[in-house]
Amino acid sequence: MSKISPLTWAAERFRTPKLSVAAAFGLLITAMLTGTASAHGVDTSDAGYIAEITGANLLPFVYLGAKHMITGYDHILFLFGVIFFLYRMEHIGIYVSLFAIGHSTTMLLGVFFNWAVSSYFIDAIIALSVVYKALDNVGAFQRWLGFQPKTKAATLIFGFFHGLGLATKILEYDISPDGLLPNLIAFNVGVEIGQLMALSCILILMGFWRRTASFWKLAFSANVAMICAGFVLFGYQLVGLFVVP
């Protein structure tokens, strides 16, 4: 099958969308994710470890960073949306690098300078980043607004929020100032390792999927499912923001 322009494909799908299937799939994804949403970030055992250790502990923090990224469903969903229509490795490298620069910057600065922000508020914005990218993939902004937002700038900006979300999680625990900078750098190295591992799995699966006839049939539904999941996760975080003490 010859490649189709994503915008041409999106226009066709907007005329004949199968939203009921996509929405049901999105709700299924959301039900799976919200079951672990409250545990997202740093789990109890890791939190206890972070609070107790002092000095530079590079390998443990590399492990914790990689573990966070691999289990961070919001990061994975956003990455999935970012590379959905990227075929060339140089393009994938550019966008993933922009995302990495964004989340590395705010994670390091946020913890080092104690930028305390509500984790529910930041996670709500992160949920919206998933919605934004899926809408971008289906050409919604081009269709609704008449122009295409700068996707590279959006990837970098949302990377800042993803990093700040990670920083708020770490700040919830009393990480020792002794060895703080090397530990944060090690944690960030682990995050990047985890991101590469997750991205490799996504690219392998996407490579197989793109070779099948079902890709263009289900691509619209997959992005609508991401929109549904993002909005429900956004609502979940708002409930936490205004209800949880």
Describe the protein.
- This protein is 78% helix and 0% strand.
- With 245 residues, it is mainly alpha-helical.
- It has one domain (6-243).
- Helix 6 (89-112) packs antiparallel against helix 10 (180-210), helix 7 (119-137) runs antiparallel to helix 9 (151-171) and helix 7 packs antiparallel against helix 11 (214-243).
- The longest helix is centred in the last third of the chain and has 31 residues, at 180-210.
- It is globular.
Keywords for this entry:
mainly alpha; 0% strand; single chain; 245 residues
Reported for the largest beta sheet, the result is:
none
**Cα distance spanning the termini:** 54 Å
Helix content, binned percent: over 70%
Measured on Cα atoms, how large is the radius of gyration?
A: 19 Å
Number of strands: 0
Number of helical stretches of at least 4 residues: 11
Question: Which whole number gives the mean pLDDT?
Answer: 82
Structural class: mainly alpha
* SSE series: HHHHHHHHHHH
Shape: globular
Q: Which stretches are poorly predicted, pLDDT < 50 over at least 5 residues?
A: 16-28, 34-40
Number of domains: 1
Question: Beta-sheet strand percentage?
Answer: under 5%
